[in-house]
């Protein structure tokens, strides 16, 4: 099977066994008295709204109106050892993704079956090969990367990390290379929780919340790319959705760039507008509404629904053909696909891109990942999933939340596609069972409730370079999303999770 040799949780460990799910204590004794909640919740809501923790309504959309982004009242406990470990690993993961993105043969081998059955990935691949055959106008790529991990309790004695307190370790959920959001929402979540702890007269707990400069880190990456383009009059382009619901997170990136560099202008356009108002000069400078574009930051373009017609695909090709520095470039986008994630989990593959010691450290993050390609290996994976669907997640080549398949639905899908090449558009992954905590969920227009929850930590990184030379690779902050333990997916923008922050414990 296509698993990582050093993975802690392999197929022999019954992750569905509820005895393996450890309950982690909250930073404060719960429940809080009703009179305390009555006092603190309205204050926390006001603090959140007045500091940019807002989203536009998906129902009854009004561009002049914001609602409160869902958040948790208290920070969630997370072991300091594991937090420090993934922070230190992020620059290596940046380099890994950068090198994968610039390895044409590896991408071709990894995706050659997927692009035959997944039209969206095929169209991205066609743009990549078109630009590659023409000759890239811009060799620099900017990676704004987010590695998402979850805590899990492994089989007793399976690895050194699990044999010492806190008896849990992190496993990687995925690496995002496009629209890696919440650079603003991550830090503001920590600010909300700091305010709450202060109002609860617990200042001694504030030192457990790590500093978070994600917004500054990500915007610093864009500014560095703008400087590398070396045209003072050029602007940064944000490629956005037709309607942006997660508006605060996006706008605060613009505000931070303006705060740091008042001389840099940011413009926002969707793919349709780019197709109508953008063009390339003979020397492949990208011009939109008269502005030369130095850096393109994609906050859209990662799902089929954002390409309404051939015009949007032509716009994406125009951007990729240009001299602008892209985040992500088309090959970076492809490097972030689920199929590539599964392929790099094969034993020994990481050594193609990293030193032996680096590969060993990164491989410890991986859980089991399995191919569904036609053949004995894929057949075996399907049999495993049909026998114990609750132990796995079925993943298509999609980003943005709400796409993964769980539980009995896995059986329904696999029974339908098991004899078809359509199955090669998916991968199978061990389901991670994180420890459960209790926390208060705060949502607009709903009463506050104490709930059992699980968390997913995202670690940001920035990397800038060419195929041959990496100028920098940095850790760039973090974010924490938390969801009800009964919910499968956890995307905040998709309405499935809520903002949270890290409370470190030893």
Please give a structural write-up.
With 506 residues, this protein is an alpha+beta fold. 34% of the residues lie in helices and 23% in strands. It has 15 helices and 21 strands. Strands 3, 5, 6, 17, 18, 19 and 20 form a 7-stranded antiparallel sheet that branches. Helix 1 packs antiparallel against helix 6 and helix 7 crosses helix 8. The longest helix has 22 residues. It is globular and about 70 Å long.
Key attributes of the depicted protein:
single chain, 506 residues, alpha+beta, 15 helices
Terminal Cα separation, in Å? 36 Å
Helix run count: 15
> Spans with pLDDT under 50 lasting ≥5 residues?
1-20
The rounded Rg comes to 22 Å
Percentage of residues in strands: 15-25%
Number of strands: 21
Structural class: alpha+beta
Major sheet characteristics:
7 strands, antiparallel
Mean pLDDT, all residues: 91
Fraction in helix: 25-40%
Shape type: globular
Offer a concise description of the structure:
By secondary structure, the protein is an alpha+beta fold. 34% of the residues lie in helices and 23% in strands. The strands form 5 sheets. Strands 3, 5, 6, 17, 18, 19 and 20 form a 7-stranded antiparallel sheet that branches. Strands 7, 8, 9, 10, 11 and 12 form a 6-stranded mixed sheet that branches. It has a 4-stranded antiparallel sheet with strand order 13-16-14-15, with helices on both faces.
